[in-house]
Amino acid sequence: MQTDSSFTFVLFGGTGDLSMRKILPALFEAHRAGGMLADSGKIVAVARHATNRGEYIEWVNEHVKPHVSKNGVDETAWASFLERIEFVNIDLGKAEDFIHLRDAIKDLPGIRVFYLATGPSLFVPICHALASVGLNENSRIVLEKPLGYDLKSSNAINDAVGEIFAEEQIYRIDHYLGKEPVQNLLALRFGNALFEPLWRREWVESIQITIAEELGVEARGDFYDNTGALRDMVQNHLLQLLSIVAMEPPHSMDSDSVRDEKLRVLRALKPIDPRDIGKVAVRGQYHSGVIRGTAVPAYATESGVRPDSTTETFVALKVEIENWRWAGVPFFLRTGKRLADRVAEIVVNFRAVPHSALGASALRAGANRLVIRLQPNETIRLYCLAKQPGEGMNLASVHLDLAFDQFFREGQMEAYQRLLLDVINGRLALFVRRDEQEAAWRWVEPILNEWKVSNKPPKPYASGTWGPAASSAMLAQHGTCWLEEEN
Ligand code: BG6
Predict the structure, then answer these.
(1) Whole-angstrom Cα distance, residue 305 to residue 191?
(2) Confidence (pLDDT) at 5
(3) Which helix (H) or strand (E) holds 151?
(4) Residues enclosing ligand 1, CB less than 6 A?
(5) Which residues are within 8 A (CB) of 447 and not within 5 positions of it... i.e. 6 or more apart?
(6) Is the residue at 418 inside a domain?
(7) Which residue, among 455, 456, 468, has the nearest Cα to 285 in the 3D structure?
(8) The pLDDT of residue 486
(9) From ligand 1's centre to the CA of 368, what distance in Å?
(10) What integer is the mean pLDDT of 310-329?
(11) Do 127 and 187 reside in the same domain of the chain?
């Protein structure tokens, strides 16, 4: 893919964790691959912990290089990548400093991208400062999550940013949308005639979506303790996955067709009645335990976390969608830190056959199930029933596997690389539109409120398990259980 879209990519928060681990490595990968970034494209870092370009490049060499290319760094590509990088030293708190930024980039070519890899409290001041020197024109702005803490604060940021940038200039990142397997989910659903007729309440009994992590809060205790799993993972990643699984076929893959359909799902989520919250939502917090043979501490003893914290590190929910396709089908969502495995997957449980001519063993063997694994290894597994060899008609569950890395050995792209290229090339489909974000907040907010009002502590779970027992109990009430595939 050859591109002639030149760009000036201004990275605010250029020495932050996200720049170090994700953004700069993703830009390097795109550069190294060749042909994805216009030769004339520049990266302009704005950072606190450096005073000039030399110092910044030193920092990039020391901190970013270890995060690029799993298979070793291509030194020639690395050297030419560094040539793309410029540095501007400004104080983000001083609007007048933005004149230096304007002067530094005024002769650089192409579309301007302003990537705000900073704390959300800086989003609005940075946008105002950019506008004060006319930099909001012919430009795009990229906002990282968290975008707000609730509907009100998210609206306040969106209103303020919206006064300066038009919606089509605003790229709200949810990195799950950039993951290859999430793209593949669209391909599976809308590229195959096979699944679509079955993708509805008549044939689907329930759907599970899990994003499980082995990691704890790492160095982000401060942030996480004021956030919790519902805001950190459900409001965005899990509801985005849910909307892609459940949406109607879009008319085309253009940005608004896809986002319109996702929005319809988000708006059709059945509001959770606060009186039912104990039946449809489980919140948990990890205690100490063992993960892959290593002892790990309790959440409440992690650095930055209050010792008496009641923040949840695990959430399980039963969600319903009020439309013709999905009425009555439970969607079970769960996410948590310090769980037994790192896995993200979607399980579609189909109904059993309406009448089993094959006898009791067919019923015992279960029903069809489609498991779409997003990570760590991307696979699609379809469970079917087959006759066991030998005498009699005894059925067993067997599976057909599609392992993507065996079909496509090359060309895998990290989420951030895809998303950054989309920003540079002006493709909005994989970014969250304001109305989607609002609908997601509107749906999660009653849960947050009820948890706050009832003030019950989260249920404890040992690190290295699948979360509190109440999570399995919730599914048992619906005659089902969480399905954990083997890696
Ligand atoms: C981020 C959350 O959005 O997603 C983190 O803030 C979480 O808490 C991360 O660890 C998970 O992303 P991935 O791509 O590693 O599954």
Answers:
(1) 46
(2) 85
(3) helix 151-164
(4) 213, 232, 344
(5) 230, 272, 277, 281, 317
(6) no
(7) 468
(8) 62
(9) 31
(10) 98
(11) no
Closest C-alpha residue for ligand 1 atom 5: 232
For residue 355, indicate whether it is catalytic.
no
* Alpha helix ranges (H) inside 52-97: 53-59, 75-83
77 and 183 part of one domain: no
Q: Is 187 found in the same domain as 97?
A: no
The share of the chain scoring above pLDDT 90, in percent, equals 80
- Which atom of ligand 1 sits closest to the CA of residue 237? 3
Reported pTM: 0.94
485 backbone dihedrals φ, ψ, rounded to 5°:
-80, 155
Q: Look at residue 2 and tell me whether its pLDDT is greater than 50.
A: no
Select from 99, 127, 144 the last residue of a domain. Answer: 144
Residue 124 to residue 112: CA distance in whole angstroms:
18
The reported pLDDT for the residue numbered 3 is 58
140 and 182 assigned to the same domain? no
* Other CB atoms within 10 A of residue 306 CB: 12
Atom of ligand 1 nearest to the CA of 224: 8
Residue nearest to atom 15 of ligand 1 (CA): 213
Instruction: Give a yes or no: residue 126 inside a domain.
Output: yes
Residues 198 and 301 in one domain: yes
Query: Is the domain of 96 the same as that of 13?
Result: yes
Domain count, the chain: 2
pLDDT digits over 231-278, tens only?
Answer: 999 999 999 999 999 999 999 999 999 999 999 999 999 999 999 999
Nearest to 59 by CA among 93, 24, 31, 12: 24
Q: 138 and 181: one domain?
A: no
Do residue 279 and residue 405 come from a single domain?
yes
Domain that holds residue 382: 177-412+434-476
Structure tokens at 229: 């799993």
